[in-house]
Amino acid sequence: MIHTASLIHDDVVDSSDRRRGKPAAAVRWGARKAVLAGDYILGISSIMLARIGNSDVISLLSRVIQDLVRGGFMQFSKKESDGEEFQDYLNKTFCKTASLFANTCKAAALLGNLPNINLNQLADYAYEFGKNFGMAFQLIDDLLDVTATDDDLGKPATADLKLGLSTAPGLFASQQFPELQTLILRRFSEMGDIERAVKLIDQ
């Protein structure tokens, strides 16, 4: 439910008109109702978490919500080139995606309460698995954003570039094609920047 709420909010922030091949919530109901719907889902998820009655799990899933918001701010924080672009991207990716995987895996391990096992160690392993899985998931998603079509994705392609965001494919490609760094710094804001960036990344 937290994930669903975050997608509804993301589509409003990103002005995305499609999600999984269907009209985004904001397109169907308008941005105001979509935001309220996302808030409502978060509220229901909070009630369900409270009913679990495990303070550690409540804390973990509350941190996910906090990270989602932090990641959103990080995504749109304009920074000059400081040599830390890829680390900034990884930090943002953890907050917006991997934190959900990591903390839900850890929560599941804690709730499993398996006998004859070091529960804290199991929870730590579950967290690391979820974190790495989540990071890999987002890396693949970012690659598909510049290599797949709208129909393949079920949502608009090159969405990140259109928002002026640089992701792993562009950051990696910029090491081979310095021209990309110029496009990244101006957030693909000039006519033809997005098409040029996609062409360079494809190489």
In short:
The chain is mainly α and 203 residues long. 74% of the residues lie in helices and 2% in strands. The protein has a two-stranded antiparallel ribbon.
What does this structure look like?
The protein has 203 residues and is mainly alpha-helical. It folds into two domains: 1-52, no CATH class; 55-202, Farnesyl Diphosphate Synthase (Orthogonal Bundle). The chain is built from eleven helices and two strands, in the order H-E-E-H-H-H-H-H-H-H-H-H-H. The protein has a two-stranded antiparallel ribbon. Helix 3 (31-52) packs antiparallel against helix 4, helix 4 (55-75) runs antiparallel to helix 5 and helix 9 (168-176) crosses helix 11 (193-202). The termini are far apart. The mean pLDDT is 90.
Determine the oligomeric state from the structure.
single chain
Radius of gyration: 19 Å
CATH architecture of the largest domain: Orthogonal Bundle
Structural category? mainly alpha
Quote the CATH topology of the largest domain: Farnesyl Diphosphate Synthase
The CATH homologous superfamily of the largest domain is termed Farnesyl Diphosphate Synthase
Order of helices and strands: HEEHHHHHHHHHH
The CATH class assignment of the largest domain is: Mainly Alpha
**Average pLDDT figure:** 90
Overall number of domains: 2
How many helices? The count is 11
Number of strands: 2
Taking the sheet with the most strands, its summary is: 2 strands, antiparallel
